[in-house]
Design a protein that fits this description.
Diaminopimelate Epimerase, Chain A, domain 1, alpha/beta
């Protein structure tokens, strides 16, 4: 009887494990069209995305190393490392014959992982991801500059990969700006708001025309004046 209960319990646990694994795999994002970036919360600016694509493309063409980045809002699991491994498998970055790297970040769980394939670790055994992370990624993450941290981290990794092959990276992260140029639509919006504020001010403070005369005759009055004019704007 005891053995039967043990077998039943083991079967239930195995079924739960299989179902949990299947659910985890089903929740993994599909590979991006370019196989380079999945940015759920758009942590990277347009310029940073363009730079990242140029950087990892250069590394791949020179070394066959594939670098992909997955930035999640929420992986919906406490097992973020297992989830990151599932992502690496689905994105075909794992295996002995593949030189692949996955940079994974989940914002809600505040977790980050670097998954390197066996093929990469064999080819580049001296690259210390933890040391690079402390140098290039964590300083920016501590001040919530996530896009800049990702860019600096991948650039440092790329530099070490190419240096191991006797090559250098042709692009640098300081070649891009951390912020995008202000869009022209923003100027239109500001102009509309400014005009509305001016109109509201004059509506609330209309001009008053004052004309005064004396018994001696003649015109010595004044034209209307602005009363209580303070510019209409308050700093916040």
């Amino acid at each position: 009887m005891v053995q039967r209960l043990q077998k039943t319990a083991a079967t239930i646990l195995l079924a739960c494990f299989v179902m949990g694994t299947m659910a985890l795999a089903a929740n993994v994002p599909s590979p991006a069209k370019d196989g380079i970036l999945y940015d759920e919360d758009r942590l990277l600016s347009a310029q940073e995305v363009e730079f990242l694509r140029a950087l990892v493309t250069e590394v791949y063409l020179k070394t066959d190393v594939k670098i992909a980045t997955v930035l999640m809002d929420n992986s919906h699991t406490p097992e973020t490392y297992a989830y990151a491994k599932e992502v690496a498998n689905k994105w075909m970055l794992e295996g002995k014959e593949t030189k692949g790297i996955l940079v994974y970040v989940s914002m809600k769980e505040r977790s980050k992982h670097v998954i390197a394939s066996e093929g990469f670790s064999t080819s580049y055994p001296n690259i210390d991801f933890k040391a690079i992370e402390q140098k290039a990624l964590m300083p920016d993450f501590r001040v919530q500059k996530y896009g800049r941290g990702i860019i600096n981290f991948i650039w440092e990794v790329s530099s070490e990969i190419l240096a191991a092959s006797g090559q250098t990276v042709s692009v640098r992260p300081d070649a891009i700006l951390a912020k995008e140029p202000f869009p022209w639509k923003g100027y239109i919006f500001i102009g509309i708001v400014f005009a509305a504020l001016i109109a509201a001010f004059f509506y609330a403070h209309p001009r008053k025309k004052k004309i005064s005369t004396t018994t001696r005759g003649g015109f010595n009055g004044t034209f209307g004046s602005f009363e209580n004019f303070d510019g209409g704007f308050k700093s916040r």
